[in-house]
Amino acid sequence: MEKQQEREWLAGRFEEHRPRLRGVAYRMLGSLNEAEDAVQEAWLRLSRSEASEIDNLGGWLTTVVARVCLNMLRSRNLRREQSLDAEPEIFVPDPIITRDPEHEALLADSVGLALLVVLETLAPPERLAFVLHDMFGVPFEEIAPILGRSAVATRQLASRARRRVQQTAPQPDADLSAQRQVVDAFFNAARNGDFEGLLAVLDPDIVLRSDGGQQRRNATVVLRGAQAVASNATRFRDPHAVLRPAIINGAAGVVVERRGEPFSVMAFTVRGGRVVEIDAIVDPERLRKLDLAILDG
Question: When you count CB atoms within 10 A of the terminal residue's CB, does the N or C end of the chain come out lower?
């Protein structure tokens, strides 16, 4: 009975740390399922350890999750390098979808898809150093052993990653209602075939990424520039499409349905009153795995 009580106490302590661990893993991996796997692995390792000898449980668990995520990233990169597919891979990270900006999951995992896309371009050690230090305040002295490097070298990794993020990831406007007005204007112009109206709400250097997966390879594209995105926006004139407003990773977005089935999830990054990035998932396999019931509430 004593062992059972000890296990229940340990499980309770672990649940206290779960939101932070999930946040670390999601930022490291950009995948909700993989993030949950990493957190579960941390629990398995904790349950097999001598927990009474762990002085700083939160730090210990963060280190375990970071190591697991680092290994998963390295394995993922190795598979990409060994792939025979010559076409460049476009991966839009998993979205956090909600209707309410105060939703618990959003608070725990709120980070824009545009930033996650940039994190995908970092080498695994750079990503780990940046995520742990810049996003979660872990000292370089604690990150260095995870990477097998000195604190100075780890600091340099984070600095490189920080420069990439600052140069590449756009800072969105903070006003969610203003973002929504811009997104609504985009779809109104698209549905009316209003090319000039589209150009008015699109930043001249806008980037659109669309991840179609294996089943919709023709929908896997990267478009750059307002002219290219506006010309491509005619696809939104489908009379069967239903637009369901959503908050995606803390920003205004839309879930597009066709004949009652999700067709795409679109996240918008709005800066200076114009759309600077659109990140879309149209991969049927990934869409089926998303929990969209929250939009019915």
Answer: N
In the structure encoding, which two tokens stand for residue 180, read together?
């929504």
Q: Is 111 inside any structural domain? A: no
Q: What is Dmax (Cα atoms) for the chain?
A: 72
Query: How far from the centroid of its chain's Cα atoms is residue 280's Cα?
Result: 12
Has residue 107 been placed in a domain? no
3-state secondary structure of 87: coil
Token pair listed for 139 = 């000292």
Tens digits of residue pLDDT in 187-209: 999 999 899 999 999 999 999 99
Give yes or no: residues 85 and 148 share one domain: yes
| Region 55-62 average pLDDT | 94
Rounded Cα gap, residues 71 and 147, in angstroms: 11
- Token digits for 166? 């600052």
pLDDT at 258: 87
Picking from 45, 37, 78, the residue whose alpha carbon sits closest to that of residue 63 is 45
Residues 153 and 187 in one domain: no
Torsion of CA 271, 292, 29, 145, to 10 degrees: 100
